[in-house]
Specification:
The complex is a heterodimer.
Chain A lengths: L2 H14 L1 H39 L4 E6 L28 H8 L4 E6 L2 E8 L2 E10 L13 E2 L9 E5 H7 L10 E11 L25 E16 L15 E4 H7 L4 H8 L11 E5 L5 H10 L2 E4 L2 H43 L1 H9 L4 H44 L12 H27 L3 H6 L2
Parallel strand pairs in A: 4-9, 6-8
Antiparallel strand pairs in A: 1-10, 1-11, 2-10, 3-4, 3-7, 5-8, 6-9, 7-8
Chain B lengths: L7 E14 L2 E14 L4 E4 L6 H9 L6 E6 L2 E2 L5 H10 L1 E4 L11 H11 L4 H14 L15 H13 L5 E4 L8 H12 L10 E6 L2 E7 L2
The chains are: A alpha+beta, B alpha/beta.
Chain lengths: ~450, ~220
């Protein structure tokens, strides 16, 4: 029998026992809906976590530090004997290194970690806090979406964004702080003039920085007036800063311009190349977390020490994979129950249509035709149930999103998307529904095909 | 007709069909040898339970013999696979049942079209063939009626149209008038007689008794 004729006969049979077949299809639909709702929750939460992770700036970032930084003071970068036979020569983390790292493939930006504890004054009252430089990418990362006020008007604007807990210390009405000024007090590093050491300039080919070698620096108290332009829940993209989360955020360019004395300045002064400005560390941000490992390996081969949370992201992915698997298994249970409904419906259909099967065989239907007919009926129930299930599952997901948003809004929190139904899930759920239905149709179809036509024709 | 059949549309060669019913072995058909020529009209007679239907089932390829052979156009059905038997039923055999066996959910037209669907005949060919078969049994006005809306005689005529639509070379009718009154039964028998060439041959009567061949002779 031709496919179209089989399909027409199957459709006719399904229509004839409309109520029973509709209920069975609804059962499949509920099973698929349960699966879709569960998986959409898993996927939605994973997407939310990925988004949060991405915004945190922890998982697409690599911390680059001089290798000697992790070996204690007093070991200059030139002291290659200490680096071990397999490691490339250690390289200082300075402006040259920053430019070199910026040239690497898949690197979005490279910036120094500037974060220092200091004092700010608001309306003449001093407050101790931590100031952090925010790179230009902060504007487009989406990390500041939903903040009160605005992002910095420019990369060198004398403006600040306050973390809300700190803002509350300044004024309980945090919104009223926007547009006001605060004064940042800090210790500026000022280089001392170079000593008359002629040997330091003797070596030909030494870089320009060597010509400005100084014997040290002095620390001068300074003030900078900053306009408050925004209030943010927490410091996004906090990086790996060891000094805690910044509570007063300023443009990175402004932070660099301030030349605030930092802890590594003392180490630099005591090191082999005093006077040359080095960074405590550089943060290298790559396009996506999946590129972290390759870029990190490249940076290591250049003689730097690196650190990333790539293992943590891998573990997180593993965790979500297991989470999705468990949700999928629980969701599938309803579909398994629904498949029993299909078996029951088709076995009932065999009993009812026993004589009809006998007639079809007497008129020339092969066992294969009968098998395909029942398969097609099972598959049609799976297909319709799959579409119905995806629709119900998607509606449940939307309902979860809606309910979650209402709940969070009542808690004065920003709304989030907990359920997501991507196109691949729609296709997979419908395919899975058809496969399960066909599997459920195996036994009835085989039983119908094996019916003895003489006995079937005798059946009343 | 193919020349290989030596003029016989079908023949049985010492065919037997035995059933095990609990401890008893039932000899439904026992060692029957008959032959039917192409175009011959043969009546198989016998009391209830004598084995007529079992013999027809064996000839139709719905059942397989315990021993012996059933040959349709000299092809032994016992050598055929299940799919080949289905093809045999589809292309060589037309069957009319005592209980009509029309599918109740289909219209008359759809019932008659069913053998063409099963034989994978092109859609463009089906319409004319279905109409021709229905015209032959004079049911043109009942095309869209379901079996429940037809009388017994009409249902049997519809069953006859269904049996003929695939142009079989062997038409088997198992007590086609058994469920009909005598007038309607005569109508059906007349229709069966109208089949091409049937009337040109001598009519034979084969009598089956307790599964065995009783007598085989021309009708007086």
């Amino acid at each position: 029998m031709k496919f179209r004729d089989l399909a027409e006969l199957a459709w006719r049979n399904l229509r004839e026992a409309l109520l029973r077949n509709s209920l069975t299809t609804l059962g499949v639909g509920v099973g698929v809906a349960s699966l879709v709702a569960m998986l959409s929750l898993g996927v939605g939460l994973q997407e939310m976590a990925n988004q949060r992770i991405s915004r945190s700036g922890l998982f697409d970032a690599i911390l680059v530090a001089p290798r000697t930084n992790f070996r204690g003071f007093g070991r200059g970068p030139q002291n290659n004997a200490n680096n071990g036979p397999d490691l490339p020569p250690a390289v200082p983390v300075d402006e040259n290194a920053r430019k070199t790292l910026e040239q690497l493939l898949d690197v979005v930006e490279v910036y120094p970690e500037i974060r220092f504890p200091t004092e700010v004054r608001y309306l003449g009252v001093p407050y101790s806090t931590v100031v952090a430089g925010v790179p230009p990418s902060g504007r487009t990362s989406g990390s500041y979406d939903g903040m009160k006020g605005n992002f910095f008007s420019g990369p060198s604007a004398d403006e600040t964004i306050l973390q809300i807990e700190f803002a509350k210390q300044l004024s309980p009405q945090t919104s009223s702080l926007i547009g006001k000024d605060l004064v940042l007090r800090y210790a500026e590093r000022q280089e001392l003039p170079a000593q008359g050491d002629t040997n330091s300039k003797a070596s030909p080919g030494a870089d320009d920085a060597d010509s400005s070698l100084s014997s040290g620096f002095s620390v001068v108290p300074k003030e900078e007036k900053l306009r408050i332009v925004g209030i943010v829940e927490t410091e996004p993209a906090a990086g790996f800063g060891g000094l805690g989360r910044g509570r007063v955020l300023i443009p990175l360019q402004v932070a660099e311009k301030l030349r605030v004395a930092q802890a590594n300045d003392f180490r630099t002064m005591l090191g082999a190349r005093p006077g040359k400005i080095t960074y405590q560390s550089l943060t290298v941000r790559v396009k996506s977390p999946s590129q972290v490992k390759d870029v990190e390996d490249s940076i290591k081969s250049m003689g730097f020490e690196t650190f990333s949370l790539i293992d943590a992201t891998n573990n997180l992915r593993l965790l979500f994979a297991v989470f999705d698997l468990l949700l999928g298994i629980f969701g599938s249970l309803a579909l398994v129950v629904a498949s029993l409904g299909i078996i029951n419906t088709l076995v009932m259909a065999i009993l009812e249509r026993r004589r009809e099967i006998g007639v079809l065989k007497a008129l020339g239907a092969t066992d294969g035709d009968i098998r395909k007919l029942f398969f097609m009926e099972a598959g049609a129930m799976g297909l319709l149930g799959g579409f119905l299930g995806v629709l119900i599952g998607w509606t449940i997901g939307m309902g979860m999103n809606f309910a979650t948003s209402i709940y969070l809004r009542r808690q004065a929190l920003p709304s989030i998307t907990v359920s997501s139904v991507p196109w691949w899930m729609v296709a997979s759920a419908i395919s899975f529904s058809i496969i399960v239905s066909l599997a459920a149709g195996l036994y009835p179809a085989s039983r119908a095909a094996r019916l003895n036509p003489v006995e079937a024709l005798r059946y009343e | 007709m193919p020349s290989a059949d030596n003029g016989f549309a079908l023949r049985t060669d010492r065919v037997s069909r035995h059933y095990q019913m609990g401890a008893a072995l039932v000899h439904a058909v026992d060692d029957v040898t008959i032959s039917v020529r192409t175009g011959e009209f043969v009546a198989l007679l016998g009391s209830s339970g004598s084995g007529k239907s079992t013999l027809l089932n064996l000839i139709a390829g719905l059942d397989r013999p315990t021993s012996g052979g059933v040959f349709a156009h000299d092809r032994n059905l016992a050598d055929m696979t299940a799919d080949e038997l289905a093809k045999h039923r589809s292309h060589t055999i037309g069957i009319v049942f005592q209980a009509f066996n029309l599918l109740p959910r289909m219209t008359l037209e759809e019932n008659v079209e069913l053998p063409l669907r099963l034989a994978a005949v092109d859609r463009s060919e089906r319409g004319p063939r279905v109409r021709e078969a229905i015209q032959r049994v004079k049911l043109d006005a009942r095309l869209s009626h379901r079996p429940a809306e037809l009388s017994g005689g009409e249902q049997q005529r519809a069953a006859l149209a269904r049996a003929l639509v695939n142009r079989p070379t062997i038409l088997l009718a198992d007590e086609p008038t058994g469920n009909l009154d005598s007038i309607t039964g005569d109508e059906i028998m007349n229709l069966l007689h109208e089949q091409p060439r049937a009337e040109r041959f001598a009519h034979r009567m084969i009598v089956i008794k307790d599964g065995k061949l009783g007598s085989d002779g021309t009708r007086p």
